[in-house]
Amino acid sequence: MTEEEKELIKSGADAAMKPFANLLEKLFGGPVEEIGGMWTDALKIRRFKRQVRLMQRVQQIISEAGFEPKRLPDRLSIPLLNAATLEDDATLQEKWAALLANAANPRLADRISPDFVSILGQLSSRDAKFLDVLYGTARISRGGQLFSESRKLGGRLANQGISDREFTEDDLRDMFVTAGLSQTPDLKHMTFGDLDKYGDQIQEDLRTFRLTIDSLQRQLLVVETIRAGVAPLSDATPMMTTYSLSELGTAFVTACTASGGNQLK
Description:
Blueprint: H1 3-17, H2 21-28, H3 40-65, H4 74-84, H5 90-103, H6 115-122, H7 125-139, E1 145-146, E2 152-153, E3 156-157, E4 165-166, H8 169-178, H9 192-198, H10 200-218, E5 222-228, E6 239-245, H11 247-255, H12 260-263
Antiparallel strand pairs: 1-4, 2-3, 5-6
Helix pairs in contact: 3-5, 4-5, 7-8, 7-10
């Protein structure tokens, strides 16, 4: 294609998009100088600024952890950088920086899967915040219950881990509130008074809560378990549903946490 032909195509694109100039400026944060090139200059500047902030944070994490970073394989570094520099949410930017720093840690590199890049790229800030609270509850406060029979040896649970902790939906609703993701102060013990006071807001909070759980289950980070209750077996036996972090979910959270290195030792 000649330069003249390229200019003609560009002029045609400019003319076609001109009526939308005001809308494009509102949607994409600035005047679009090169419509045919998808405003590459403005995007490059924004991505460069994010990359600088990313590297600053990665350097800080590495310095605090005290290790000499190793070279990352291209199959991990290229998609990771591409995805990280497109992210403008502060919570997720921190996750990308931690993932990159941990991947460069010689002690942890083998535990950082390339799949983590695609998983993190699919999560919203809300998903990430909730996941952190779920992980923290299972790891630090040892909340939830132990139902698993799969790791018992001689009647005792062997190698009890974070993924062995199971939580009810009410537990998860409490965590959703704790994470600051609900405008309703209590999604577990709701009264008729609450329904009168908060009305549609409760329904909206419950909807976003359910979307969060569905998203984490879709990424295989959270596992749902349905089992018979304690009543005698019959057609009317109550069923109990619990939720827990999967092994993938546990590994993912630690890989995307600045202190993940301490937890993966």
